[in-house]
Each structure stands twice: as structure tokens, then as C-alpha cells.
Amino acid sequence: MRGAQADFDPEVNAMPKLPLFNPLCGILPAPGRAQEIIAPPYDVLDSQEARALAKGKPWSFLHVSKAEIDFPEGVDIYSDAVYEKAADNFKKMLDAGVLVRARKPCFYVYRLTMGAHVQTGLVVGACIEDYDANRIRKHEFTRPAKEQDRAKQVRFVQAQTGPGLIAYKQIPEVDAIIKKQVLKTPEFSVTGIGGVIHTLWTIAEESDIKAVTAAFEKQKAVYIADGHHRSAAASRVRKYMMEQRGASHTGSEPYNYYVAVAYPIDEMKIWDYNRVVKDLNGMTPESFLAKLQTCFEVREVKGRAKPAARREFGLYLAGRWYALKPTVPTPSRSDDPVLSLDVSVLSDLVLDKMLGIKDLRKSDRVDFVGGIRGLEELEKRVNSGEMKAAFALYPTSLDELVAVADDDQVMPPKSTWFEPKLADGVVSNPLL
Questions:
Q1: Cys-Cys crosslink for 29: which of 33, 44, 76, 268, Cβ 3.0 to 4.6 Å?
Q2: Strand, coil or helix: what is 138?
Q3: Which among 94, 74, 401 is positioned nearest to 265, based on CA atoms?
Q4: What pLDDT digit, counting tens, does each position of 259-310 carry?
Q5: Opening angle at CA 20, ends 16 and 24, nearest 5
Q6: How far is CA 323 from CA 192, 366, 374, 381, in A?
Q7: Separation between Cα atoms, residue 112 and residue 192, nearest integer Å
Q8: Rounded to 5 degrees, what are φ and ψ at 298?
């Protein structure tokens, strides 16, 4: 770095730290345009699914979040050309007035409605220094390649366009502000995939903005529920922007926080995250069932064996469902918050010791199925011959997630599946 940029030293040029949550000068759909813009998160669709969903929808946010759909099939989705196309599409949406930037920093109330389930939270700018310091607490490992992908997306587009999902412990004064706000007319209320209704209100009153900021500043910690790679990418981008701006960095620029949606823990829903395996490690179904009986009570059931409580597991094997309960001691949360998880118990007793699947992140013998797809999806994967057996689990709880994060540990891969999902394109955070 040369010139003024070389003069910047984070120690010498120390800036006042931003609050945990900051209002955003967000980029939103223009009035009446949200229905044609909002899109599922980039990582819940593959390129083919995204291409089909965006067909005939020139303003779908998938043209930004998955810009490979504007290229012939087979394009390298990590090429600079794809990121450049995403940036160009985002700029076109701004130039056409389809997306508009708010005139002042605000918080936003974001409600998700899926059938009878309703959760209402806040769109915020989450302080990256607090993420780096683990005040915004993590419970998963991230992969450098995925971090790099999201960081390049943000750098090319010059905005964070995919929100992270954060859980927080109930705050009465924040609840009161949200309840007051949802009585007003929303910016929009539109239906996304799966029939999920996305509704957004703006919190623009300075007194409310200050109250929300102050209330969260009293919190010891909040918790990443989903979006670990988005959060890690934001930290990378902040470091990059600080280097690029050098002495002109003030510490208050929008790139110092990242767009996230925070919900009270007791309003969020974690679904089961089930496992399917390709083989039985050389065993027949009969010998596998016999081996299971050394550690579990194994009972064949009519219908599907959906676990109703912790330490209950369902097994689908050779066209039949079985209910499993451990008959050997298993760790308690006080022993270890990670080892006590049902996903850990299944991995230890069955996937590892019986099936020889040692590393869930690397093994190609195991796959994962989100509970939103139902147990019929497990049957489908096994009945097709693609998989040999399927395991249904009881959902990990938010309390377990918090215990793991507070203990500064990480969960096994694919331990939590949050639904309903946030949409991309609802509120984006420009870097400057």
C-alpha cells in the first residue's frame, strides 16, 4: 500500500467501538416491487433450481445472489465473471428504481409467517468487532472456500445482500417497540416459496432506534443461528475495506457491521436434521439390527418412527421403521454440551463405531435431510436404492445451541435446520 493508505494502523488509529446492533441505511425493494424481487437464500437452491425459479422474472434477486443463472449451464460459479454479473445486475436494479436506498439509518421489523408459526424480529447491522470477539457467538465451523465465495460476492456487489440469522434472549423493551410497530402499515407483505409470508416494517423514530440500540448493548451475547459463512465473510470484507481505505477509515462505515435478522429465541423453530447412509459397512440389514441391539432397545413400529423426545431415534431400513432408544449411558449436558447432543450420540454409537463413518464433514457415505422435507423424504431416499438406511432425530433445541456456543464449542455438521428461511433482497447493506 502507498500514500495515505500506508498511514493506517489499527492500534494507532483506534476508533470508538460500534454498538452490538446498529441501524442500517438499507437498500430495499421499491414500493410495490417486493413480490417480484425477494428470493430464497443462495444456499438452499442449486443453480438448476435457481434458474427455473427465476425464469421470466428479470428482477428476481436470484440474478444477484446466484448470477450463474445468467450464463450457460456449466459455467464456473466461482469465476470473476459471475461475481461481476451479480454486481451489474444489482446496479441495474438500483438504476431502474426497482431497489431504493433508505434516506436514513433505520432498524426494520421482519416477520415470518409459515402456517400457524409466526416469528417477529429485527433487521440490524451486527457489529463485526463483536463477531470477531465472540460476543456474537458461533456454534459451527466454517469452510474457507465458502467464506471466500461470500466475501467475493460482497466485494464485487459492494453490498451485503444475504442476511445472517441471529437468536437473542427475550428483551421486554424491544418487544414493546416491535409490538407498537406491527400495528402500522408495513413496507410490504409478500409470499415467498413454500407459502411463507415475509412482512417488513421500518423503525424510523429516533427514540425507538436509540432504545433498541441501548437495549441490545446491555446484552452479554447473542447467537448465530444460521449464516456462519455470511458472518465470517463480512469479517473478511471489513479487513479488506480497512486496508483499501487506509487513513480514511473511520470505524463507522457500513462495512463495519453486517446485515442480520435477530429473533427472540422462544419464537424460533429448529427442525430435525436427519441422516441417510449409503451402506451398512458390509453388514446385512439383519446383522445391522442385531448389532444395534447391543446399544439400543430396537422396536419395529407401524407407520413412521418419528422421535417425540430427546434420546429417541427412528430408523428406516429395508422398508420398515424401527424406534431406537439407547440402553447404554450417554453424556449429559453438564458433562459436555456437544457430546450430549442427540446428533453426537447417534454419530458416536452408530455412524462411527458401527458404520465406520468417522468425519461427517468429509465422508461421502452420509448425507443430510432437513426435517422440513418430512420422514417421507427419508423413505424416498432409501426406497430408491440411493441410500441403505435413514435415521430420524429429535430436533436440537435452542437451549442446546446456546449451551454449546456459551461453552465456546462447535456442534457436529448439520445439527440444526431453521425454518422458515429468511429471504434475500428484503434489506441489503451497502458497504459505504
A1: 33
A2: coil
A3: 401
A4: 999 999 999 999 999 999 999 999 999 999 999 999 999 999 999 999 999 9
A5: 90
A6: 36, 20, 16, 19
A7: 10
A8: -115, 120
